[in-house]
Each structure stands twice: as structure tokens, then as C-alpha cells.
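Reopening: C-alpha cells for the adenosine-5'-triphosphate complex, inputs below.
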Amino acid sequence: MAAASPLPRWAPTPSTSLPLWRRWVDGGATPDAQQAPGVMMTGRWSSFFRAVFPCTRGRDDADDSRISRPASGAGAGAAAAFDGVDVLPPAARAAAAHVVVVDDPGPGIFLTWEDVRVTVAAGARTRGAPPASILDGISGHARAGEVLAIMGPSGCGKTTLLDTLAGRLGAEMNQTGVILINGRQQKLAFGTSAYVTQDNVLMSTLSVREAVYYSAHLQLPDTMPSPEKRAHAERVIREMGLGDAMDTRIGGRISRGISGGQRKRVSICVEMLTRPRLLFLDEPTSGLDSAASYHVMSHIARVAARESMTVIAAVHQPSGDVFDLFHRLCLLAYGRTVFFGTVSDATEFFILSGFPCPHLRNPSDHFLRTINKDFDEETAESSNAKRRTAAEATDILTNAYQSSNYSEKTADQIVEMKGTGGAPFRRKEQASFSTKLLVLTKRSFINMHRDIGYYWMRLGIYMGIGLCIGTIFYQVGYTYSSIQTRCEVIMYTTALLTFMAIGGFPSFVEDIKVFRRERLSGHYGVVEFVVSNTLSAGPYLAFIAVLPGAMLYYLTGLTAGAGHLAYFVATLCMCTLLVESMMMIVAVVVPDFLMGIIVGAGVQGVMMLNGGFFRLPKELPKPVWRYPCYYISFHKYAVQGFYKNEFLGLSFPSDQLVDPNATVSGLQVLDKLQVEMGYSKWVNLAILFGMMVIYRTIFFAIVKDSIDPQFLLAASPPAATACPLPCRRRRRRNISSSREPSSRPHPPSCGRPTAEPPRRPPLPLSLHSIIS
Ligand SMILES: Nc1ncnc2c1ncn2[C@@H]1O[C@H](COP(=O)(O)OP(=O)(O)OP(=O)(O)O)[C@@H](O)[C@H]1O
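Re-run output (same inputs, fresh job):
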């Protein structure tokens, strides 16, 4: 095992410098895997068998194939290199020779799901709509070293199935069914699985190289030297055909960068960095031309075979070449299974069901065309010929599949795979807290610098407004009327500068999206995000508070003195930080940026109104407005702190009309303004700081609760070991298959040659609840 090695796992170990085949021979399965009952042969044995018996290579397994069959274990790539078929192209081979083995392959992931049903809660789609079924009794499996394609017409539930298997269903979805990893319910440890989502959420200001490189730093352990991380990141980028776009910015809201297809490939790069054991891909080829699609998918299939990775990909419209790369197909139509099995069986199933693929047509095109009923009406109008509609064809196929040998075969394979066993997956070594903090702070600092909408535009506007205030209220002086003028300058500055903090909201929403994706993948935690965001924003906030603040302070002639000026800009800075913290909460609760701006502006408007300026504190209606709004409004503490800073120690001539010789002290002014004088201005500043901490803590709690990643190893007990052979016969067969299930005797370990293998009762299960 890698852990036993005296060298760090990421160090260039002797095995990585060996030829490719030696590394598989030296790699091998974990002792757990070797000892576990019913475990398939992987690692060195798989490689060995595949090397010695190259004829065992092939994607289609026989009906009675054991999951221990070496065709799909780690080392398939090695076998490919041996038997001369499907050899890696020279460039890929050169790259593969440098692939750093992240962890020993172990048994790999054998994922099974039975009778998965997903319904969307009432009213989730449209108001008043009843609960709707999205997935209806889906069963299947995905095995190590193979690529399973989930296909079907748009809206059939591909993404929902991926989300269900990955434990990412939203709260509005209800789910039942049994989902097991190697026969047990277990959480997916960090680095075990990765999910490439349909919407490529990336930091738009970074270049391709930077995006992957920072991600490598976040995901890979500290024991791996930085130059190696950089080299690994670049290698992964080149593997995805992005060598030429390496230094191009990703682009997004403001500037155009790489193309949509390239963005998709960058997303795949980021998730492939740690070579996960289970990879979910949602539309990996969307936006790619056929050559790029083939390149990307063949690379993924190669890595899957080589590193015993389980790949589940929802694919829209694969070309013939890409379709040939898939080992298994899960064909869905409107939430039901049309077919599950090997690609060659799919063609056979369609023939036997009366829907043969026309000559020269791509089978995947044929399957999708047959079951897409979205255009039935239009087709019926434009065609006089009497032929089956897609709706009828879908019904025929789904019913035929349910009672066919193919579904029985799938059920039998699920039973076999549930006996896989093996130790729970270990959490992969990750970067330390301090490394993540450093990398995130640096990345965020660069992003804030490059995204003009984050702070620079605000700085420009603040400078402009500061100049306006400074010239309009130029040198307010120390007359009686200057008391009111000073109050107005203070109130306007506080309100406007903090209100304008919502200007950075769109940029922040994008940050939150990236954070959500990375957090769900377990790259780092909420603490790292919050602290790094605060650290990186600090210098900019100081900048945008100090420059305009100092300018308008000087121009308006507020109370002179370095201490007064320092307090003024420090409070401005704290207010901006506080409003940003508030907007962070809004961004996770209301992820749409337009709605977020409206909500944020509304909340600030109410706070401002109750800050004790527009209506003096004692005049505020007690219920709601005074208690609690006045006390939770940060404007109260900011404005009162400013007042104390401004008026304490000053005295003004009294109103000429009342008594020309009298003076008004600053304390009297504060009394008139109903400022709470029981504590100093520094306490006001401390309260603002405390409020900022509270806001960030609330953000932390919300995120912790709502965005929970799927790492941390489970301690759930292994499932009862099932007999690895099919013990069950199905009722009836409408469709005969060319391959009949095996009638091999059950092994002695089974103990029940004729009885049914132990089956778990279908638990009302939410993988999400297990995972989180
Ligand atoms: N969170 C949700 N709330 C309400 N309805 C949803 C939700 N997620 C999915 N659906 C509905 O479930 C159905 C299946 O959606 P899903 O995204 O899984 O389909 P898909 O096959 O991946 O589609 P496409 O190929 O177009 O991406 C759709 O009708 C969609 O409207």
C-alpha cells in the first residue's frame, strides 16, 4: 500500500519512474481488497491476467460474467498497451508515463442503485402544481474501469439521476431507493468522487492555467512539491487538449474568454486532478465538436480503464465514435428505464422489440429518435404514413425491458456487485488548512484585482461622490448652522458608502457559485472561504474607505486631527465590511443576483430608516421599529460613533436669534441628537466589528447547513455478503436474449444453493442524508 512507503505519496517514487506496466504490477490492490470475500481482481492481478491473457480484454461482459472479471479492472490500459489493440497514441503514452498515481487503485467503486424514485415536491415547478415524478423505479449499476452513459431525450431525468447517485439532490426533491457503494451504504470520502456539472462554474478572471493550478494546490497534499503540482496541472490541461489556451482567461460576465467547449474541458481538468475513483459527468461533450468530444471521452475512458475509475456520464447526442467508447448504456425516457445494459445488447434489444436500427444510422441517434415523443404531434402532421409514434414506441420498449432478460441480467449483476465488499474508502490526503487559506486568499485577491466590478468601479464612484460632497459642503466651518451640516455630511456618507457595497454583489454571487461547487466537491471548508475572503477583501476595503473618506474629510473640514480622521475612515471601512458580510448571507439565501440586490437594498433601507437619524430614537414607535430594529441597525452604532468623534470637545456659537453670546457644547449637541453616551466611540466601533463577526457566523451556519459536501468516511457496517452469482429468476420473458444467464452452481460460501441471496429491504433512503 502507498501508506507503507517511506516516501511521501506524491514524491516521485521508484514506481512512478518505472515503465507503465511495472507500476500496475507494483501497484496492486489493498490487502482489504484482496481479503474481502467476493472482491473482484484489480490492481496487480488484474493487470497480470490482462497482460498474460489479452483475449480477456473487451467491454461487453457475458451474462454470467463475474465482477471479478479482469476486463474491467485497473490495468486495462496496461493490457491495451500489451496486446497492441487500442494502444495509446505516442503523446498520450508519454503523458501516461508521467501520471502520478494518487493512491493505489484498491477495489474501485461498484455503485448499484435499485428502484430509485424521485419526486419533486408540490409547487416546486409551478405554483399549486402537485408533486411530480421525475424518476420512476430506476435500477442499474456502474463498475470500476468502465464508462456508463446515461442517455435519453432532454428532460428525461439524466441530471436528476446523476444528482441522486452523487447525493446532490435539492431539498425540494424526495427520493427513495437503495444506493450502495460496493454493497454498503457509505459516505464518499474526499477525493473519492468528483462531479462535473452542466454549467461550468469557474472563476472568470483566471487563465486556464491558473484555474487548474490553484485547484491543484487546493486539492493535492502538501507533501507534493509545488513544481510537481504545477507540472501535474499542466499535464492534465494538455491531456484535455487545452495546451494552446493555457494562458487565455476563462472569461464571463465582463470579458469574453475561452469557448463554451473549452470551459467544459477546464471543468473536467479540475475534477480529474486527484484522479477520483468515481466520476460523474453531466454533459461532458456539450459544446464540443465531434473530434474534441471523441478526444475528451476517449481520454476519460482510458484513464477509467487504467486507474480503475468508475465513470457515469449523462450524454446528449454522442457521435458514433464516442458512443463506441461507452461500456454500458442507461437509456431513460420520461423518468423510466428504456434499457440498461451493454451497448451491444442495446442494439439487440431494439431489434428484438421491433425497432431495428436502420442501416448506416448511428445507433445512439436511432435510440434517441425512437423514444423522443416531444415532436410526435408535428411528425404526425407532416407525415401521412401510418407509423408508431415515439410515445407508443417508448411504452413498448419500457414494458419490454421490464420483462426481458436484460433487466433480469441487470438485477443479477446488481446482486453480484453488492457482494463486492472491501474496506470503506479512505479519505485522500489533502492540502493543509494553512495552504488552502493561503491559496484561496491569493486567488481571491487576484480575482478582486482583475474583476473591475468588485472594487475598482466602486472606488471610482466613491472618489467622484467624495469630490461632490467635499465641494458641496466645502469647509463647513464652526457656525451654529454647521451643526446640522456636519450631521448631514456624516449621515449621507455613512448611508451612501455602505449602500454602494451592494455594487459588488454580482461579482460576489459568482464567487459563491464557485465556492458552492468546490465546497460540494470537498476542496475546502466554509472557514477557509470566509477567512480568505475577509483577508483578501481587507486591503481593497481599506483602500476604498481611506481614499475617498480622507478626501471628503479634508474638503468638508470636519473636526481636525489625525485621531479623528483615523476613526472616521476605520468606521467607514468597518461599515463596508459589515455590509459585505450581510450581502454574503443574501447571496447564499437568494442566489439570483438581481433578486439579491433588491433584497439587500431593501434590508439596508429599513436599517437606515431605523438608525435614529431620520427619526430620533425616542420618537421611533416602540414595537418593531425601536425594539428590535433600532438596536440591530448598524447605522445606529456607526452614526452615533461618528457623532461622538465629531462633536465631543467642540463648541459652537448659539443661535443668533435666541442668544447671540451663548455657546453650544458638543455634549449638548449629542444630547439633543439622543446619542447614547454611556460608552465611548471605540465601543461603537467594537460593536460594529462584533456585528460583522455575527454576520459572518450566520453565513457560516447557513452554508454549513445548506452546502454539505460528500466527504468524511462512513462507519456504516458492510452489507451482508451476497452470493456473487444470480440467485433469482425473473417471472416471464418477452424477449429472448442470445445469451442466457448462467446456471453455474453457487459457491460453498453462499450456503444456499437454491435460496434467494440476502437482499436488503428497499429502504426509504436518501443518499444525501447518508452522505451529509
Ligand atoms: N429542482 C427541480 N425542481 C423542479 N423540477 C425539476 C428540478 N430538477 C429537475 N426538474 C424537472 O425534472 C425533469 C428532468 O430534469 P433533468 O434536468 O434531470 O433532465 P435532463 O434529462 O438532464 O435534461 P437535459 O438533457 O435537458 O439537461 C425536468 O422536467 C425538470 O423540469
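The first helix runs from residue 14 to 17. Residues 120, 124-125, 134, 152, 154-160, 170, 172, 314, 316 surround adenosine-5'-triphosphate (CB under 6 Å). Marking as resolved unless the reporter disagrees.
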